[in-house]
Specification:
Length: 199
């Protein structure tokens, strides 16, 4: 089999509590790291790179697991989404990332990022870090009320992200369309971000 060169990533990452590691539809997690969730089962890791959002499942079990979380699930407001975008712009400038599409939704984020010398997981970590810093500095952090005495605040993000590797220009264009149209599925307008570079 010929080695294909990665040209870009379709990166997806979620707000805390949106997609649990033992979601009955499947997840991309290897383990359940929260004692509150262990009683709802082991991680439901799947090998597919396709969305499993529409897979039939026990919704009551999924909602019960969410109610057992240590903190309430995060749902970003419009103002918080704007601040997250400002953090992404800062990270892109620092890292030299070329971002071809971005949608920041209340519970998750989609980006198409041109291949970079850093791996996709590190880029996702950088983006989340700068977005979180912005939320804290603007007093918009959604979990601020759970701050400890030393000022530490739980992360508003799940631990990892999910990068899908894109090998052809056709795959990149398809991913860009998907990301650009994603807000429409939730009844929102398409988003325009100043840091997005046309492909």
């Amino acid at each position: 089999m010929l080695n294909r060169r990665i040209l870009a990533y379709h990166a997806v990452f979620t707000a805390y509590g949106f997609w649990l590691p033992n979601d009955p539809r499947g997840s991309w997690s290897d383990y359940v790291g929260s004692w509150e969730l262990v009683r709802f089962g082991k991680a439901t890791k799947v090998a597919t790179r396709r969305s499993v959002a529409a897979v039939p499942h026990d919704d009551q079990k999924r909602q019960a697991a969410k109610r057992a979380l240590k903190y309430e699930p995060v749902k970003f407001t419009g103002q918080q989404c704007k601040t997250i975008g400002d953090g992404f712009r800062r990270a892109a400038g620092e890292g030299g990332y070329v971002i071809h599409a971005c949608s920041i939704l209340p519970t998750h984020v989609h980006l198409v990022i041109q291949r970079h010398e850093r791996d996709a997981e590190r880029i996702i970590g950088h983006l989340k870090s700068r977005a979180t810093q912005g939320l804290k500095s603007e007093n918009l952090h959604p979990l601020a009320k759970f701050a400890t005495e030393d000022g530490a605040i739980p992360t508003p993000w799940t631990k990892k992200g999910w990068p899908v590797f894109l090998y052809t220009t056709a795959e990149i264009r398809r991913a860009i369309r998907y990301v650009e149209n994603n807000p429409l599925k939730e009844g929102k307008r398409m988003q325009k971000w100043t840091f997005v570079v046309p492909f």
